[in-house]
Write a structure and sequence with these properties.
heterodimer, A: alpha/beta, Rossmann fold, 2 domains, B: alpha/beta, Pyruvate-ferredoxin Oxidoreductase, domain 3, 6 strands
Chain lengths: ~400, ~180
């Protein structure tokens, strides 16, 4: 193995915080461009990238703000580099317009949001899970993005690799929705050997003149050249035809483009969605969880088992597109579904929509001071609902 | 299953989070335990309450926060008062002698008072390493990890030129503990 290869993938067992693991996952996936603006609790990602990217021939730029950061990331992606930025709620809000631009121009890129308590500056050093709906609907217009939710430093590594792969395969922005607890949590992380890490790269056009914004059916992903490959590139956030020409009044072109960029995710949802399940075949009660809160649910499942309660737990590694099928499956088997989240109710509404009348859905909400929902609090809700 | 939960509390700027990180790394990498470390601090660079939480276990750790701790290391009066209720009845309390003025606790606790700032200033030459002095005394007193693992983690984490005085702080922390134990025996 070359010395360069050794520096790209730091195979072995490390004791890392989530933010470091995220940066290393990005480098292992082939990320060679990072533009960002420091913000608690995501600053360590930028700090680590600043140190590591030059070692692997990559570029790190500290920008003047978050709007510039996402802009640079989109530009770098068209320059042919896998690119990423990392921020928290306030910066994520600033990035929203250009996340829409990345959706419309089908630009692969990864955005990390290490969530803290908002709105606004809120409690800058304290964890929250309040950006669930912003990640889904923060930018305007019809669009689909992919949102992943790690619950450990190990998954900050693994899901960052996955984020780059999905982003390259579907030419879509992928958001890693972490939180202060997972981002600043120190744990062992096993980095596999380079051969064990699957890395996907965007499909390139076979010839100059091939359409790069369509011409691939209703759910397809067109190939993507880079600036300098010899194409006369027209890249615009305005509605465009398959060759990139602006078509700002033609209803059919708009329908075709926007429907395709939505359906390329919706129709491939089964391939994209990644969930972890416990006991869903034979459950007395259901719990849908994600991020740091899922770690409380694991312990609640153990505590409940001691009392003879079988908990069907669905832990979402993919939040968007929403894993409807598995949630429906659980709902058909239980009377109650709990949704613990460190917000005043966000994903619970999506669960309610999917579950309908099949089961009663109840939120467990907690905000402030970065305090986690404890296993005991989840157990206590279960007892109440089951009348024990 | 063996599981030890540790809280280190103090004020931002003392190195409470760093001390936790060193302990956690030593247990995870050099003693091959399952370890999770989390922290809490304010938005200001120094002066607000800071806390480091470490769980060391022989098995996988799910919920990452400390609920009832086995060991409480207090480097401020406020920290001691706030977190004493979280210490198990038969737990270990270790506090900085000059920063914690008032201690009223149950008799079942094992208690150690460490003049960490004084040792750091007079014997090591910098009060910056009071955090290392107190966790070294903690390691000697509770045997949660070995002195050797502690030193190896410091070598990993603390770059030169500060490495040397941090290692010296370990020596002095352990030496202080030996002297105390000899006096009592």
């Amino acid at each position: 193995m070359s010395e360069r290869k050794n520096k790209e993938v730091l195979s072995g067992v490390h004791f890392w915080q989530g933010d470091t693991a995220c940066a290393e996952g990005a480098i292992a996936a082939g990320c060679r461009f990072f533009a960002g603006y420091p913000i608690t609790p995501a600053s360590e990602i930028a700090e680590h990238m600043a140190k590591r990217l030059p070692e692997v021939g990559g570029i790190y730029v500290q920008m003047e703000d978050e709007i510039a950061s996402i802009s640079a990331v989109i530009g770098a992606s068209w320059g042919g580099l896998k690119s990423m930025t990392a921020t928290s709620g306030p910066g994520f809000s600033l990035m929203q317009e250009n996340i829409g631009y990345a959706c419309m121009t089908e630009t692969p890129c990864v955005i990390v949001d290490v969530q803290r308590a908002g709105p606004s500056t809120g409690q800058a050093t304290k964890a929250a899970q309040g950006d669930i709906m912003q990640a889904r609907w923060g930018t305007h217009g019809d669009h689909e993005v992919i949102v992943l939710s790690p619950n450990s430093p190990q998954e900050m590594f693994d899901l960052t690799v996955k984020a780059f792969n999905l982003s390259e395969i579907y030419r879509v922005p992928v958001i890693i929705l972490s939180d202060e607890i997972v981002g600043h949590m120190w744990e062992k992380v096993r980095v596999p050997s380079p051969e064990e890490i699957e890395v996907y790269n965007r499909r390139k056009p076979s010839h100059i003149g091939e359409p790069i914004f369509g011409g691939v059916g209703e759910v397809g992903v067109p190939p993507m050249p880079r600036i300098g490959d010899g194409f006369n590139l027209l890249i615009t956030g305005s509605t465009h035809n398959e060759y990139g020409y602006r078509k700002t009044v033609d209803p059919e072109v708009h329908r075709r483009l926007v429907t395709r960029i939505v359906n390329k995710i919706r129709e491939n949802a089964d391939k994209i969605i990644d969930v972890e399940t416990q006991n869903i075949e034979d459950a007395d009660i259901g719990v849908i969880s994600y991020g740091c809160t899922s770690r409380s649910v694991y312990d609640a499942v153990i505590l409940a088992e001691k009392e003879g309660i079988t908990v069907g737990h669905v832990r979402l590694r993919t939040i968007w597109p929403f894993p409807e099928k598995v949630v429906k499956e659980v709902a058909e088997r239980v009377d109650f579904i709990l949704v613990p989240e460190m917000n005043l109710g966000q994903l619970v509404y999506e669960v309610e929509r999917v579950v309908g009348c099949e089961a009663r859905v109840k939120a467990i909400s907690k905000i402030g001071g970065g305090e986690m929902i404890t296993p005991e609090e989840i157990l206590s809700e279960m007892r109440k609902l089951l009348g024990r | 299953m063996s599981r030890t939960e540790i809280l280190i509390v103090g004020i931002g700027g003392m190195g409470v989070v760093l001390a936790g990180r060193i302990l956690a790394r030593a247990a995870a990498i050099y003693e091959e335990k399952e370890v999770v470390q989390t922290q809490s601090y304010g938005a200001e660079a120094r002066g607000t309450a800071a806390r480091s939480e470490i769980i060391i276990s022989s098995e996988k750790i799910n919920y990452p926060r400390v609920r009832k701790c086995d060991i409480l290391v207090a480097m401020s009066q406020e920290g001691l008062e706030k977190y004493l209720p979280y210490l198990k009845e038969d737990g270990v309390l270790i506090y900085e002698k000059h920063l914690v003025k008032k201690v009223s606790v149950s008799e079942k606790l094992r208690i150690l008072s460490v003049p960490a700032i004084e040792i750091a200033e007079k014997k090591v030459g910098s009060r910056l390493v009071a955090n290392i002095v107190i966790i070294s005394a903690t390691v000697g007193f509770t045997k949660i990890i070995s002195e050797k693992s502690l030193k190896m983690a410091i070598v990993d984490i603390i770059p030169e030129p500060m490495r040397k005085i941090n290692l010296k702080a370990v020596e002095e922390g352990i030496k202080f503990l030996r002297e105390i134990l000899n006096q009592n025996s």
